[in-house]
Design goal:
It is a single chain. The protein is built from five helices and seven strands. Helix 4 (about 155-170) links the parallel strand 6 (about 145-150) and strand 7 (about 175-180). By secondary structure, it is of the alpha/beta class. It has one domain (about 10-205): Rossmann fold (3-Layer(aba) Sandwich), CATH 3.40.50.
Length: about 220
């Protein structure tokens, strides 16, 4: 795909699922990962972004996403990645620990990863997992975009108040962190999210980016 100012997210197609880093697609040049607690509305946000009701699985039972799922943008070497939700329901501790280990490996070693969208319910922002992800992103120098989901659940005043509080809480983390409100129900914030993804995925390619990623395993 040639460089362009915007991308068409509605042409996203499922590429593959991976249980560990070594199973991830090897030809992806750039990808943005979506992470969040199991009840943050991650699958719904991905479906809204891509205009496809069933691209990312949604369930009334949190934690159904147990693998790293790759959605390629058309025939390009760009992808959106659905990471396992944190706080898996009704899952043995041993298995949960294995997933967490593989997730950490992906975040630390996946060379194609160029940005992270961290989703959190606007009514319950900045929980322990969210803060841990922020700390990791800061240490890794990874751009991170906070998506305050389910904004339609609050009236405009309280929603804007929460947005300002979260921005204030992360302002000392520098320019790597950005924040917005979002609703899969009415599409609020969709264009803003698209612009953020475009800025990551269509930035001028470096020479090393033109090669397929060689991730450590």
């Amino acid at each position: 795909m040639s460089e362009q100012d915007s991308l068409i997210y509605t042409n996203a197609v499922f590429d593959k699922s991976a249980a560990k880093l070594s199973q991830c697609p090897t030809d992806i040049i750039r990808e943005v990962a979506f992470a969040g607690r199991s009840n943050a509305g991650k699958s719904s946000a991905l479906n809204t972004l891509t205009g496809q009701k069933k691209l990312a699985r949604t369930s009334k039972t949190p934690g159904r996403t147990q693998l790293i799922n790759f959605f390629r943008l058309g025939e390009s070497k760009l992808a959106l990645v659905d990471l396992p939700g944190y706080g898996f329901a009704k899952v043995p501790v041993k298995l949960k620990n294995e997933w967490q280990k593989e997730l950490e490996t992906y975040l630390n070693r996946r060379q194609a990863l160029c940005g992270l969208v961290l989703l959190m319910d606007i009514r319950h922002p900045l929980k322990e997992f969210d803060n841990a992800m922020l700390d990791w992103a800061l240490e890794a120098g990874m751009p991170i975009h906070l998506l305050l989901t389910k904004s339609d659940k609050l009236k405009r005043g309280p929603a804007q108040s929460t947005l300002l509080k979260v921005r204030k809480a992360v302002k000392d983390l520098g320019g790597l962190v950005s924040v917005q409100t979002f609703s899969s129900h009415n599409g609020e914030g969709l264009r803003e999210l698209e612009k953020r993804l475009n800025s990551w995925l269509t930035a001028p390619l470096l020479a090393e980016d033109t090669q397929a990623p060689h991730d450590q395993v």
